[in-house]
What does this fold into?
Amino acid sequence: MPSLSAVDVIRTKRDGGTLTDPEIDWMVDGYTRGTVADEQMAALAMAILLRGMTPAETARWTHAMIASGERLDLSGVARPTVDKHSTGGVGDKLTLPLAPLVAACGAAVPQLSGRGLGHTGGTLDKLEAIPGFRTALRRSEFLAQLHAVGAVVCAAGESLAPADRKLYALRDVTATVESVPLIASSIMSKKIAEGTGALVLDVKVGSGAFMKTVEDARELAHAMVSLGSAHGVRTVALLTDMSTPLGRAVGNAVEVAEAVEVLAGGGPADVVELMLVLAREMLAAAGLPDADPDAALASGRAMDVWRAMVAAQHGDPDAPLPTARETELILASRTGVVSAVDALAIGTAAWRLGAGRARQDDPVSPVAGVLLHRRPGDPVRRGDPLVELRTDDPARLPAARPAAEAAVTITPTATPTVPTLPPRRLVIDRLA
Ligand code: URA
It folds into this structure.
């Protein structure tokens, strides 16, 4: 690789210029190997955040991040492979029922997942609430389970896109996360390196998401679909609502319990609906458009795959989930109709109770979380329970309480009335 100057590269981007392929390759490679310093990459990330990157620059940046590690070869897997990625939301436990559901319909789901950061939860943290569940698998275990069970949800090893691992941690402490090209290349470098043949992106929009507006979410979705397609991964993106939490449970063990309810044929309607929409998209992208996820759910085949997946990863599907020692109810202060439950405020309450982390290496509590007793559109009487806070650490309650109280808006009426709210539009747009 030619020897370039990090200062020149930073200056070019700072002044609004376009980086060349060799400059991008050299910076990403040097940063991964430690010859480009943290402060230089931080300055470049800030320049990118402020100046943006062209589609060609974003594509090369993604290519360089993939090239920083290994790219898995799943061509030996007999079934078509398809994965789903969510950009992160509150109460978004969809991966848990979706991976076994799609596997029960004939695809293989190689899901390398992440941990939660800030108010958004992480799939690995949720699964680790299951007694015994292992998220760190060896390559051979990952492949064997993909063949035998069809669904694996585990941590990405150190060898996949190591440049992203290092850069994401740096962006997190330098206020440079919220850049569309950096988010798109971060997500897609990991998904492309994972080797999946097809990918469905669930791009969340609303207060509980990274992307607060439909325009920003559409820009991110478009960038990711282009990157996936350019790398031979059939990629589809749905923009979905994250102004309100998904389902009733927000946390780790509580979300696993809700996911199991869904697999058993129950669960909140919004979780079931979005799971089925995503399953149909995944199966179509995998080349199985005639597969029937409704039937796989109703027959219990999805639950069978869930149990097999949990057992293969050393979890006990029959073990009771851990429960919190302390609970507190937030009660309605007036009679009326619940007109809003804000996702960010509920995510913040769950995080303050211990369900999430402030820094990447912080521990999370499996039992901490929030249960919504009322959801938008529900009638409510003064004194009815609205939100339940759960934690093992009562000292956390005073910080969580105001966020949970502020999350719920009640439109007062003389008596609790049948709601007149428009139905929630879960899927806002689709890009392919
Ligand atoms: N998730 C990622 O993996 N990367 C980002 O940059 C943001 C969310």
In short: The radius of gyration is 22 Å. DSSP finds 16 helices and 13 strands in the chain. Residues 168, 177, 182-183, 186-187 surround uracil (CB under 6 Å). The first strand starts at residue 82 and ends at 86.
